[in-house]
Amino acid sequence: MFSLVIPAHNEAENLPGLLERSRKALPPLATDWEVVLVDDGSTDGSAETARRAMGEDAGRLQVVTHAAKSGYGKTVGDGLRAAKGDYVAFMDGDGQFAPEDLERLAALVADGADLAAGWRIRRADPWHRSVVSKTFNFLVRLLYGIRYRDLDCGFKLMRRSVLDRTAPLISRAALINTELYYKATRAGFRVAQTGIPHHPRLAGVRSGGRLKPILRAVRELVLLRWRLRGWS
Fold first, then answer.
1. Any domain includes 175
2. pLDDT (0 to 100) of residue 187
3. pTM of the entire structure?
4. What is the mean pLDDT of residues 120-142?
5. How far is CA 193 from CA 121, 141, 206, in A?
């Protein structure tokens, strides 16, 4: 089975198009597939919108609901834990990644990768978010000793063995990507990356890039490294 995890907070405007395209992109990758939507405390009816958008494939939709906004790391982590597939991908629910590009990650896995990850070829975000991302990537390389492009890109595919070996995922903020890279590398899994187009957000409000979450992420960057000391 192939599982696609989609974290979403107030993405009712973006989910119909995203899920319609996912319903077309997933069958060529696996005859048995599911979508795991993690509704992170949405107030715009995102979950109900998703159920309607799945149409005849509504039975392939699993919804995980947070009563209140819990943050990106916990949202993605809960989706990964709920996923049933032998291959598990996750993709942001804001429509900035195309489900069709999962084929690029699947090709890396078919070629032997255990964890396949995208890096944004040209980030379709305000300039200050790119500056923050580059600073974040520098700090991760410095503290964790891992060198991958665009570490916080939310577009990944992994084998079930990677999820089982890296469990439990303890990050509750933006560092779940860092934790996955760090643990997968330390465990000896093969990690591969490929460039992925990044598209402008057409609806909804960006949740990242504000000062408070940035400072919280920097603090967790240090705390998580301490908690992962000696992990192998």
1. yes
2. 96
3. 0.91
4. 77
5. 12, 16, 25
